[in-house]
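Reviewer 2 asked us to include a model.

Predict the structure of this chain.
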Amino acid sequence: MRVVVTGGGTGGHVYPALEVCRIAQEEADLLYIGSLRGMEIDACNARGINVFGLDSGPVYNPVSLAGLKALTKLWIASFDAKKKLIQYKPDVVFSTGGYSSAPVMKAAKELGIPLVIHACDTIPGRSLRMFAKEARVVTSTFRATAKALPGCNVVRTGHPIRQELRDAIATRRPEEQFVVVLGGSGGAKFLNETMPLAMRELCESGCRVLHSAGRGQYEQYEHLAEGIPNYDMRPYLEADVLADAYRRATVIVARSGSGISEYAMGRIPSVLVPLPSSADDHQFHNAKEFETFGGASVLTQGARDGEIEATQESLAREIREWFQDGTGHAQRGLAEWDIPDATIRIWTQIKNAASK
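Predicted model (structure tokens):
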């Protein structure tokens, strides 16, 4: 069987696709088609996955000059993707979304190649929504995704998380009052500015904090953590350090992209501050799904009707409440939400689509 995998531009699309590639390699010939400007080319080369790059990029404003140039690149990329699919003759195309996947999904539709989509967020991105009804099946990370895709065949499989990360935190031993702040590889400006100030009093009382500020923002904000006892701010957490942090964390403070599925895997409650500019407000909806079953508390960056605004005081208060109330209820809800064999379930759906 031949499988084309596509998805990229950001790690939120690439890493789930690569995890599916990990098990697919055992049974199929793979070709990953991504963007030359994305991280997927280097990631595939490092893993020995055959990869083909398209000259494509995101279209932020289609009526601007930059937008018109991006649209032209996408049109050319669609032509190149179609040529590659004709040459490779895949039995199925699997997409996790992102701007680099749109030309490939368009080519698959035109050629009549079965398409399987994985939606990582509650509200799928624009490129996935464009082709969701063409897909044999849409697998999803979140429960709410089916409501966002009426008329589509949506099957909740859970999120494909790196197996080595699952293995690494299998022996989780949470420590008392240990807070992990995760802003992603690029960093979260709001958390970098606010969390050191919010945590000063708690740290002076014995709480410990490990804060990943992002490589691009660390030097700008590291001074805010200076002089705060037990506050460890770093540019980035490498895989082994992150796994150790998951093993030890009492609570996580973070944005709410699809990576929050890792907190469910670790049964770690969280205080989530959704990125207010996320496409279709998907981070807010991701966070609210976790709040619904008691796995997280949600604070909004800026005022929002019916919600609690994230401030130094409210962040400190929510963290204190997790310390005081315990995490047993959250752990049960997170365990029910998590699907440990998600990657295998997705691969099964891909094989089924290819055989129809």
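The chain is about 45% helix and 15% strand. The chain has a mean pLDDT of 92. We have added this to the supplementary material.
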